[in-house]
Design brief:
2 helices; four-stranded mixed β-sheet; binds zinc ion; alpha+beta
Length: 143
Amino acid sequence: MKRPYKIRHEFVEFVPRVREAGVLYVSIPYATAVHDCFCGCGTKVVTPISPVGWQLTFDGESVSLSPSVGNWSFACRSHYFIRMDIVVWAGDMSEDEIAWGRMRDKAAREGHFGGHVEPLASPKAEVAKTKSRGFWSWLTGGR
Ligand SMILES: [Zn+2]
């Protein structure tokens, strides 16, 4: 397992074509964060910031990205969290967990962009919450 390491964040309007390694570029106007995969393979990783994408937290000094970044489709298949400008490596996910995560993401996205929003208190939403809790606490280490 790789060691956690410190990265840098940079608030930009446009993400530069040539990016520095170890920098998370954040464009607030475009609600997007971009970085070159922090495993060092250099693959461009785009994380759209939205209610169903990633959420970015800026505490005045450092940024955190949630949920984790899972580069399943890259050769490196790296999986990490960005917490307060620090890359924290997560364990390998099994194929099942990857499939489940994708399904959940897809459902969330369709729900969001399809213009159909479940009321929060509906039983269906409660079930979805319960179902995803295991996955979520696995991701966040039981937080
Ligand atoms: Zn990589």
